[in-house]
Amino acid sequence: MEAPEDTLILTNTPGMAMGLGRAFGIKTVSDSQVITRKGTRILWSKGSIMRHYTPGEYRPKWKNYRLADLPITPDPKFKPISGARESLARIKTALQSTSRVIHAGTPDHSGQYLVNNLIHEGGWDGPVERLLTHSLHPADLASPTLVPNESFKRLAEAETCRIHADWLIGINLSRMLTLMANQDTPLPAGRVMTVLMELMRLLSRDKPQKICTCTKPALLDTAHLQAACLHLGGTSPEKTILAAQSLYESGIISYPFTDQNTVNADLWERHRQQPAREDLPVSGKNLQSGIMLLQTGYNRRLKPDEDTVLRCIMNQESRAWHLPPKAASCRESTLADLYLAMAHAGDWAKSPDLAHQEDVQIGTARARHSTLERIFEAGYAERHSLTLTDKGLKALGMVPESAKDPGTFMLWDTAIASVASGTLSSHQFMQRIHGYVADLMDALQRSKKAC
């Protein structure tokens, strides 16, 4: 990619910066930046730089748990994380000395949101170009297509809506449940957490038929990859995430954190000598797609978890080539069953109208295992069996049906997708979520009086 010396590229992680640097030619590397042979600087954020306001930061009286204050429904406000000040200062200085900025965040809502925040907090008000990082393979970055970053502003708006919706439902539901139970210690709850607990309850009651992998001709999404790795090698979802991230940053696989199983036609044509099956779903150029292998020759030794991830991806891809998948033993895994259930929310929705929707999954690709860990830490479920404890069943029993129905989660995720597509404004979304939270608190109040 031709770029003048005063070009600045901003991305998510040091590994992504190194991947971009290898493609463009590395001159120097430090703890804070990569500089290419043409003088382009590549900087990263080392994770999220912003956090949501706490209730007490909105209003001091909201610091305490009081029934009279519920529902708490402020507009979204965010502030820099204290530990991110050094990174922000470094990026702000870099932005002051550049004339061209390229957004090279991950090709999803969270990547768009994170790097947009870097640019905004850094004080840059000039034009920004977007480099879509579906792949960090050098062949895919040799002549990258840059588009105006403004074209993707709705993705960042949708991520803001998701974060604030999770905050509103979590804060209000947790406080109401804590007050109803007369607890001194807060009872955790949330838009994803509560639905995930309901899935665990349903799975322990209705044991699903064992599924070793995705059987239809499509690429893997993250949830199916995690389930496949559990079945094949017993690799935990957390380790699968780390291994997939490493393989992506090395240019070996395409972007692995996705809820889509479609084929990126450009990547497929560039890296495959055989056409894909005609019945494979194809994504648009700027959209997320399934996980695909980009190269079979590696310049480093693979770690065991990386090898498991690659074997699962290759086994699934073989269906796209009309080839039989390689035979492999399939381990029993209750956790894999749970991840497959999260990938097929419609199967568990109470409304039959939602039963056949396949494009909504519970939780985000990177955060599902963190939400599950919160459930264990709260004492809501047994880690080994994934069955809810008495404490978990009691907490779930206090929650109104709408808050634990996977169908409700699907409707909210559809609304977030509508913000991303531009068919619903973020203001309209916020009005809806405020109304829903108020109705949720009313339902809890009525159930408390009925008891």
Automatic annotation (TrEMBL):
Keywords: Isomerase. Its EC number is 5.6.2.2. GO terms for biological process: DNA recombination; DNA repair; DNA topological change. It is an enzyme of class 5 (isomerase). GO terms for molecular function: DNA binding; DNA topoisomerase type I (single strand cut, ATP-independent) activity; DNA topoisomerase type II (double strand cut, ATP-hydrolyzing) activity. This is DNA topoisomerase 3.
